Each structure stands twice: as structure tokens, then as C-alpha cells.
Amino acid sequence: MNTPTIHPVVLCGGSGTRLWPLSRKAFPKQFAPIVGNKSLLHLTLERLATLNRTITCVASEEHRFLVREAIENAHAQGRQILEPVPRNTAAAMAAAALLAEPDDLLLFAPADHHIPDVALFEATMRSGVEAALAGKIVTFGIAPSFPSTAYGYIEAAGATGHGPSHAVARFVEKPTAAVAQTLILQGNYCWNAGIFLVQARTLVAALRTHAPDILATCERATAAVSVDGSFVRLDREAFEGCRSDSIDYAVLEKHADVAVVRFEGAWSDVGSWNAVAQLHPADEAGNRVSGAGSVLNSRNTFVHAPHRPVVALGTEDLIIVDTPDAVLVAGADCAEQVAEVVRMLAREGTVEATEHRRVVRPWGAYDSIDTGERFQVKHLTVKPGGKLSLQMHHHRAEHWIVVKGTAKATRGGEVLLVRENESI
Q1: For the domain that residue 54 is a member of, what is the CATH number?
Q2: How, if at all, do strands 189-199 and 137-142 pair?
Q3: Are 174 and 246 within one domain?
Q4: Host domain of residue 409
Q5: Is 402 within 8 Å of 419 (Cβ atoms)?
Q6: What are the residues facing 197 on neighbouring strands?
Q7: Same domain for 244 and 326?
Q8: Mean pLDDT in order along the chain per 10 residues (424 residues)
Q9: What's the CA gap between 309 and 276, in Å, rounded?
Q10: Largest CA distance in the chain
Q11: Which of 214, 241, 263 is the last residue of a domain?
């Protein structure tokens, strides 16, 4: 018997403001190097590649080059479905299902989760295939390790008779601490991870029943796509008319045929700096360090310092995050309030609230090192074979110095090779 092919679909939306200053609107957390100098999207793609190396990503138009770079770094392949505006998971999943073959078995996974046990993840996803082929929407619940108030819960009922799946009795909103304690003691509740396995035709039928307006607008948006290489652009006018809703509210909480498979491994949605800290080993005093950080006479301090030495001396219960253009110092008990800081900085017009110094482009990236009166210095990284567009400037001069590699430069009618330590 042939093993059914699983088609992974990565949902790359989200602004990730809770991990500022590393994550920003123009560079959300799924793209930031957080674990072992790899981004969460990179790790997600590597994890899903054990199921199928051809992966679809649903992403924002403005993040398309970041997604493409992650796909290349993870040695995966596939296409990107580009959303002209964010419309939450129901619309993203609807578009992916409509652009797939009706019998395709789609595995929807968020781009920003950390799941270290890849083998267990793969085995758990495959264990949901039988139920999905039987016409169920299969969701994967996380075995809860503590009474969290930050996650929704899924109540599992009796076995479905299809593999290890159980019928879903109900979905529970993020509970109070007391309710969360009661739920996990019952033993049949798990955290809602937002990972789904479903045939495309099953999802489309469920949307037609429970969210026909979302499906109708996505049908119009996918009927008029434009294709540019691996980029599939949805029709802007049609997609803008779609209401924003999560798949949980739009479909799952109303649908009768939902099953849950329990995942018993470690999992994190990396939703705060405290969660990031937990991904790093602690010393005897509870300190955790990433990169070039150091601690001395400190307790329960997390230092994230990927670029330069950052020293915490005599600190306690602190989070310290260093980036080239912004630094966060916060009490560990205030980690959930970082998004408020971002909103405050945005109101004040602080560019660093949403933008990084380093900007990704199709040909590579540039970093604005210094700016002053009548000058700007940028460090450009051009991919092998990368090509910048030809430009003409009437009111400024540009001086280029090659520090590594060889560049073929066009100046007027001349084409010249510029080597290391040479300039033009």
C-alpha cells in the first residue's frame, strides 16, 4: 500500500511584536535567528521537509524575500502564496486549499513554533493521516506541562476508530489559572497548537458550510492569481474584501467532524522573551545566555547578544536583548508587556519600532551602517549571481568598495570587474 503524500503548508503571518527589538513588523519573529542561529521558519521548514521537501508558504507580499531566503537556507523548495493584506488563518488556509488538488492531504503549520523532536513530530503527523482520509479535520494538541493561561485548550472525547485520534468535544478559550488547573487535572485536555491535517476538499466543504463568505472571496482571489516564478499573487481587490477570522472561530468550533491527535513532545510557540530564554540551558543561578553575553553575580537573568559582548553584573530577574540599533532591558515579569512598548514607540514616530537596519532585497540585503549630513554608508551583501538594477543619479555620487568576492559593475557604457579591495 502506498503511503499517502502529505503536502505541508506553512502559515507565515504574524507581526511578532512581543519579541521586539529582535522581531519587528518588517521582520517578524519567524524570520529572526533565535535557536542555534537559525530562524523559527528555517527550523519549521527543516522539520516539515522530513514529510515532503516541497512546501507551500502562505506569506505577506512584503515578506516574500525573507521567506524565499529561509526556503533556500533550509534546502527546501516550493511556492509562495502571497497575501496582499493580512486576513488571518481562515482566509490563508482557504486560499491554499483552493489552489491545491481536491484530494491533496494538507498539513497546515505555523511558521513560528519550536519543536525540537523532529522524529516524534513526523511520526505524530503521519498518525493523523487515517482520520484525515476519513474526512475529518485533524488538529494536533500539545500534552500540557503546566496550567497555562496563554493557550486555548482542546477537550478530547472518545476514540474515532481512525488511528490514535479522538473526537473533539469542544474548544476552550484561554482560561483563568484556576480553570487551567482543573482542565489539566482531568487528563483529556491539551493545548491548541494550531496545526491541522485535512484534505483540501474536506476543508473547502467545511468553509462552504460555516464561512461561505470567506470561501467566496477566496474563490475570487484564487481565480485571478498572477504567477511570477515561485510567487503566486492573490487578486488584491477580491482578497481585501475578505473578513479577517481565525480558522478556529470560522470553522472548527462549529464543525462536527474534528479529531485531535495528541503530541507528547516538547513544544513552544515562542510567544515571549521568557519563552525564548527557556530554549537555552540555565546555569546554577538560573541565568541563560545567547551569543556573546556574559553574567557575573547575577540570578535568573537572560542575555541575548548575537552581535557584541553584553555583560550583566549583579542583576536579578532581568531580560536583556541587544540588537545593532535598539536594546531592551525588562523585568522578567514584564515580558508580556513588550508589545505595549512597541505601540508606544510607534506613536512617538520611532522608526526602530517597526524597521531593522538590515533590509532584505531580492539580490541580497543591505545594512545602513551610518548616516550624516550629505552622506550615507551601507554594507551590501549580494548573493552569488545577484543583480541590482541599473540606476542614474543627478544629485549624488556613489562610491563602491568590494570587501569580499568579485563584482561585475556597469558604469555608463563600461562593464568592469571590481575585485576585493578595489573600488569604483
Answers
A1: 3.90.550.10
A2: antiparallel
A3: yes
A4: 358-418
A5: yes
A6: 107, 138
A7: no
A8: 87 84 89 86 96 96 89 91 95 97 97 95 96 96 90 92 94 91 91 96 97 97 93 95 95 95 93 92 96 96 95 97 95 92 94 87 88 92 91 89 95 93 94
A9: 19
A10: 76
A11: 263
Q: How far apart are CA 118 and CA 35, in angstroms?
A: 15
What is the Cα–Cα distance from 151 to 269, expressed in whole angstroms? Answer: 10
| Local structure of 146: helix, strand or coil | coil
Nearest to 126 by CA among 107, 154, 102: 107
Q: What is the pLDDT of residue 217?
A: 97
Is there a single domain that holds both residue 12 and residue 133? yes
In this prediction, residue 135 carries a pLDDT of: 96
C-alpha cell belonging to residue 263: 503530541
What distance in Å separates the CA atoms of residue 86 and residue 239, rounded to the nearest whole number? 9
- DSSP-assigned letters across all residues of 216-268: HHHHHHHHT-EEETTEEEPPHHHHHTSPP--HIIIIITT-S-EEEEEE-S--B
Q: Is residue 423 part of a domain?
A: no
Classify residue 51 by burial, with Cβ atoms within 10 Å: 0-12, 13-18, 19+: middle
- For β-strands 358-361 and 80-83, DSSP reports them as unpaired
pLDDT of residue 392: 87
CB 109 within 8 A of CB 9: yes
Indicate if 291 and 221 belong to the same structural domain. Answer: no
Pairing of β 189-199 and β 105-110: antiparallel
Which residue in this structure is represented by grid cell 507551500? Answer: 56
Grid coordinates given for 232: 503566486
Amino acid letter, residue 317: D
Q: Please check whether residues 53 and 165 belong to one and the same domain.
A: yes
The cell for 82 is 502571497
Q: Is the peptide bond before 212 cis (omega within 30 degrees of 0)?
A: no
Element (DSSP H or E) covering residue 9: strand 6-11
Indicate whether 128 and 250 sit together in one domain.
yes
Q: What is the pTM of this model?
A: 0.88
Amino acid letter, 69: E
* DSSP result, 264-299: -S--B---SHHHHHHTS---TTS-EEEEEEEEES-B
Please tell me the predicted confidence (pLDDT) of residue 27: 86
Dig out the grid coordinates for 231 from the structure.
Answer: 510567487
Distance CA 79, CA 74 (A): 14
All three cell numbers of 328, joined, read: 531592551
Instruction: With H, G, I as helix, E, B as strand and everything else as coil, classify residue 74.
Output: coil
